[in-house]
Design a protein that fits this description.
eight-stranded mixed beta sheet; 10 helices; SDR_fam; NAD(P)-bd_dom_sf; oxidoreductase; NADP; signal
């Protein structure tokens, strides 16, 4: 027993000594485009922290007018103030957006469309993970409601402005977890059976299918869309799971930083020549493999129609 414990301790000690090298190896791709964005308008959901904040920082550094759309306006203002000071770009603005409330989504979109006549990049970054069972204001299970339906409605409300501003792009943050997901149309809101791990995975598959169908709907408009897996990132997303928080504390030296996790979002938002790959899935700044369920056109079309019905919208 003592020998085993000693070996385990030695192994963990070795891992932590090697942590910087290991993390660097797994850090993933880097957005290498030198594109500058003066005059461009960007909306990023959930950009008051984590990956979204680092994405906003880099886009502001390149001269874009960046809207941080988030639920916690005070945290948003703190992030925006930091980004403005860091980038010397005063055009970093905060607007309230609660993706768990369709009234808030509509209010944000109405305000934005009144304020801005252009929109070049929409990054649907915000999300919840491993959330205990609950429902949104509108009665949707929280994962599917926030991660999918909230962004579905937001995109619907802003898409005409994106078309008017073309060429423009929509980036949807998904996850490698989509491989485990399944769209359970008979129990979309988890009322019959609920597991918060699988609920998250289901919502990430929904992000993939939305991106796939959206690319078809937008063909020929000059608006392109991409799904992104940011990697395993030190993130506040873990806060709803004790086990994940514990693992995060143990293995955070090996995870990507928020800046590293933002690289694929930045790549899909800015890299030249991605237009033919609209609807595809990216990880580490390159196109990557998707699960068979994420390639199912019939499921993508059905989810689109069900989403429109749940939200009470008509979207050709």
């Amino acid at each position: 027993m003592l020998v085993t414990l000693g070996l385990l301790t030695s192994f963990l000690s070795f891992l932590y000594v090697m942590a910087p090298s290991i993390r660097k190896f797994f850090a993933g791709g880097v957005c290498r485009t030198h594109v500058q964005l003066p005059g461009k308008v960007v909306v990023i959901t959930g950009a008051n922290t984590g990956i979204g904040k680092e994405t906003a920082r880099e886009l502001a550094r390149r001269g874009a007018r960046v809207y941080i759309a988030c639920r916690d306006v005070l945290k948003g203002e703190s992030a925006a103030s930091e980004i403005r000071a860091d980038t010397k770009n005063p055009q970093v603005l905060v607007r309230k957006l609660d993706l768990s409330d369709t009234k808030s989504i509509r209010a944000f979109a109405e305000g934005f469309l009144t304020e801005e006549k252009q929109l070049h990049i929409l990054i649907n970054n915000a999300g919840v993970m491993m959330y205990p069972y609950s429902k949104t204001v509108d009665g949707f299970e929280t994962h599917i409601g926030v991660n999918h339906l909230g962004h579905f409605l937001l995109t619907h409300l802003l898409v005409e402005r994106l078309k008017e501003s073309a060429p423009s792009r929509i980036v949807n943050l998904s996850s490698v977890a989509h491989h485990i997901g399944k769209i359970r149309f008979h129990d979309l809101h988890g009322e019959k059976r609920y597991n918060r791990t699988f609920a998250y995975c289901h919502s990430k598959l929904a992000n993939m299918l939305f991106t796939r169908e959206l690319a078809k709907k937008l063909k020929g408009t000059g608006v392109t869309t991409y799904a992104v897996h940011p990697g395993i990132v030190s993130s506040e997303l873990f806060r709803h799971s004790f086990l994940l928080c514990l693992l995060w504390r143990l293995f955070s030296p090996f995870f990507k930083t928020a800046r590293e996790g933002a690289q694929t979002s930045l790549h899909c938002a800015m890299a030249e020549g991605l237009e033919p790959l609209s609807g595809k899935y990216f990880s580490d700044c390159k196109r990557t493999w998707v699960s068979p369920r994420a390639r199912d056109n019939k499921t993508a079309e059905r989810l689109w129609n069900v989403s429109c019905e749940l939200l009470g919208i008509h979207w050709e």
